[in-house]
Amino acid sequence: MKFLNFNNPKHRNQFYQSKEWRTLRTYILSSHPLCSSCLKSDILTPAEEIDHIIPLHIDPSKRLDTTNLQPLCKKCHSSKTYQETLRPLYEKPKLANPLWTL
Fold this sequence. Notes:
4 helices, 2 strands, flat
């Protein structure tokens, strides 16, 4: 596979549409059909998504590494994605000196 910049939505889409990814995704969902996050709380929820534990934009070399993949339900996957990508955009930066104010 040629170089893909996973910060680029077009490149991400190319990867997620690839035969390699679709085959691996199907294999993982069939062999691990429950959400790994819900299971930690003893909740049995069908997995619908495959999550990259270390996100693609941080380490693209792990894109097909099964040790970097986990099955998640839609709710857990959305929550994790929000924590990794959107939440930092909405949080105010922490000040070095808490006595300073804006």
